[in-house]
Design a protein that fits this description.
Length: about 150
């Protein structure tokens, strides 16, 4: 018998709400983060990246994708975004490209484990802008699907 994977039975609404909370935490931390060293933005960036991943997960689940398939993507935001776009998520070209870049530059891993590599990361305001667009567009579609 397999152990239940955390989040396996979470509803689309639960995932969307969790994404919203991580987004809110990223915003609040951004308002209080010290300016200066790029390393000071890493916790905010981590929260934003996790929120992005959760918004994409909620969207894909709402569109009928299998939770195991989504989980198998690990932290590949680029593949998640390709799947979401194929399923009807309409993002600006710049946002779609940035979502691909997040994976190709391994930003999730650098944010978690590589403080010496902060110079390779995209600007934190670009991450925030990507999160905002995704939260508005995916959130609206997921909310509509969850209420049906």
């Amino acid at each position: 018998m397999d152990a239940v994977y955390p989040g396996e039975s979470a509803s689309v609404h639960d995932i969307l709400e969790l994404a919203w909370h991580y987004r809110t935490a990223a915003i609040l931390l951004g308002e209080r983060s010290p300016r200066g060293k790029p390393i000071s933005h890493i916790p905010r960036r981590f929260l934003a990246l996790h929120s992005i991943e959760l918004y994409l997960n909620a969207f894909l689940l709402a569109k009928g994708h299998d939770p195991k398939t989504i989980r198998g993507l690990q932290h590949d935001i680029g593949e998640r975004s390709r799947m979401a776009i194929d399923a009807g998520l309409n993002l600006r070209k710049r946002t779609a490209e940035h979502l691909e870049t997040l994976t190709s530059k391994r930003e999730y891993l650098v944010t978690r484990y590589g403080p010496e590599m902060t110079a390779t990361l995209s600007q934190v305001n670009r991450v925030t802008a990507t999160l905002e667009e995704l939260s508005q567009k995916a959130g609206k579609i997921v909310d509509g699907a969850a209420s049906q």
